[in-house]
Amino acid sequence: MGDQVKIDAIDAKILQALIKDARADLKEIAEICGISCVAISNRIRRLKKTGVITGAVLFPNLSKLGGAIMATIGINVESGKEEEIQKMLQEQLFLIEPSVSVGCYDLFALVTAININELQKTVQLMKKHDAIKRITVNIFVPPPHANFENIELNLAGS
User: Fold this and answer.
1) Alpha carbons 31 and 142: distance in angstroms, whole number
2) Long-range contacts of 2-6 (CB under 8 A, 24+ apart)
3) What's the CATH number of domain 62-140, 3.30.70.920, 3.40.47.10, 3.40.109.10, 3.30.1380.10?
């Protein structure tokens, strides 16, 4: 894990504005913060350089693209078979995020499927794999909406 970066109240305001709208106008952010556009630009550049800002993310409406169901899949596998199972997940599902897990599961995946039947077919196929010991599927109804606006940011000196 990298070093923690200290931010001040102005950095926090900048981050909150960018969380609400990653394409926010520098002039609007400057007005919110009470400093110049140049200062905002410099601070954003520093926040990127230190890794606090890693980029802007687009969240497509997956139901419009044929991914009407979003689910998490927790998988317990035989030791040493994690990469093999991750590859299978990538081939069989619309995989959003695969990761090795700490806790109840060896692997954890965020996936989308066209419908419940397609998700169920994939789960049944996975259950046939010798290395998979247990699968837990949780379906989001409706699909989750990322809300980062309420995140409390760690401020320097607090």
Assistant:
1) 36
2) 2/51, 4/154, 5/47, 5/50, 5/51, 5/52, 6/154, 6/155, 6/156, 6/157
3) 3.30.70.920
Write out pLDDT tens, residues 83-131.
888 888 777 776 666 677 777 888 888 887 778 888 888 888 888 889 9
Which strands sit side by side in the sheet containing 107-113, from one edge to the other? Answer: 94-100, 107-113, 69-77, 132-140
> What six digits make up the tokens of 30?
């400057």
Which residues does 82 contact at the CB level (< 8 Å), separation at least 6? 100, 106, 107
Bridge-based pairing of strands 69-77 and 107-113 is antiparallel
E strands of 24-131, at which residues? Answer: 69-77, 94-100, 107-113
Model confidence, pTM: 0.54
What number does CATH give the domain 9-49? 1.10.10.10
Spatial distance between the Cα atoms of 124 and 157, rounded to a whole number of angstroms: 52
Whole-number Å distance between alpha carbons of 110 and 43? 33
* Contact criterion met (CB below 8 Å) for 6 and 156: yes
